[in-house]
Every structure is written in C-alpha cells, then in structure tokens.
Amino acid sequence: MKKTVVVFFVLATVIACKEKEAVIDPSQKKIVYDPDIKNIMFSYCLTCHSGSSAISGLDLSSYQKVKDAVENKQLVHFINNANNPMPPSGLMPASERQKIENWVQNGFLEN
Ligand code: HEC
User: Fold this and answer.
1) Residue 93 has what pLDDT?
2) Is 17 exposed, middle or buried (0-12, 13-18, 19+ CB in 10 A)?
3) Which pLDDT value is given to residue 42?
4) Do residues 30 and 106 touch, judged by C-beta distance below 8 A?
5) Local mean pLDDT, 10-residue blocks, the chain (111 residues)
6) Which end of the chain has fewer CB atoms < 10 Å from its terminal CB, N or C?
C-alpha cells in the first residue's frame, strides 16, 4: 500500500515537471547565442554598443558581454520598455524579443 502511494507521487512529479518544460518552450527550436542572438545584436544594437566608443560603455559584441548585460544591466527590461526602448528607434518585433527571452530562460545556450 505505502509503495503504491510513493510510486504515485513520483509519477505525478515527473509528469508535472514535463508539463512545465513544455510551457516554457512549446514547439520552438532551441535559441542559441550563435547564430540567433548574435544576429539580433548585429542588426539592432552594435551600431551603438560596440567598440571603443560604445554608448554607456556597453559593448554587446560577444557571448559573455551580452550575458553580462542581461544579468547586470537589465537588458531584457530595456528591450521591452516601450517608453524608452532599445534600440531607441523603436521596439524590435515581438518575435525577436521573444527569442532573447527564451534564450535567457533556457540558461544562455552558447551554440
Ligand atoms: C542608436 C543608438 C543605440 C542603439 C542602436 C541601441 N542602444 Fe542601447 N543605449 C543607447 C543609449 C543612448 C543608452 C543610454 C541612455 C539610456 O540609458 O536611456 C543606451 C543604454 C542601453 C542599456 C543600459 C546600459 C546601462 O549601463 O545602464 C542597455 C542594456 C542597452 N542600451 C541595450 C541595448 C540593446 C540590447 C540594443 C539592441 C536591441 C540597443 N541597446 C541598441 C543607444 C542605443
């Protein structure tokens, strides 16, 4: 009897975890820094945020630097802030912003 109960809870936990994963990333392919995020940075950010004259001293030209900007400079907040967005010319398409958020949620896969 006790064993049955334990088995039931283990199964329930396994199933619950699987469903949770599915919610985070339903059918989409895994987002990785190279090439997905790298291409977005190249298209929308590097004109201002790279090299020796990078604005705010913020350089977004490598995996480590982009990861650092997410963790310490609120990058995800800035790309979704409609009042003062990054890039300043206007919010990126939702699909591009979603890719960055998926990448962050899935633990910054490099390639
Ligand atoms: C046209 C130039 C330009 C582009 C393109 C641009 N930014 Fe910025 N960015 C700025 C300026 C100017 C600031 C500083 C002003 C501010 O904080 O509001 C800034 C600040 C930031 C900050 C805050 C840095 C800090 O130290 O507080 C982040 C994060 C950021 N940008 C991310 C991005 C991302 C990600 C992209 C591309 C999706 C991007 N920016 C594209 C001009 C730009």
Assistant:
1) 98
2) exposed
3) 98
4) yes
5) 68 60 58 98 98 96 98 98 98 97 97 94
6) N
Rounded distance between C-alpha atoms, residue 34 and residue 29, angstroms: 14
pLDDT for res 19: 54
CA–CA separation, 30 vs 69, rounded Å? 21
Q: Give the number of other Cβ atoms within 10 Å of residue 59's Cβ.
A: 18
Q: Which of 103, 106, 105 is nearest to 38 (CA)?
A: 103
Ligand 1: which residues within 6 Å by Cβ? 44-45, 47-49, 55-56, 58, 60, 69, 73-75, 78-79, 84, 86-88, 92
Mutation probe of ligand 1 site: the residue of 78, 81, 89, 100 with most atoms within 8 A of C-beta:
78
How far apart (Å, rounded) are the C-alpha atoms in residues 5 and 50?
A: 58
| pLDDT the model gives residue 4 | 72
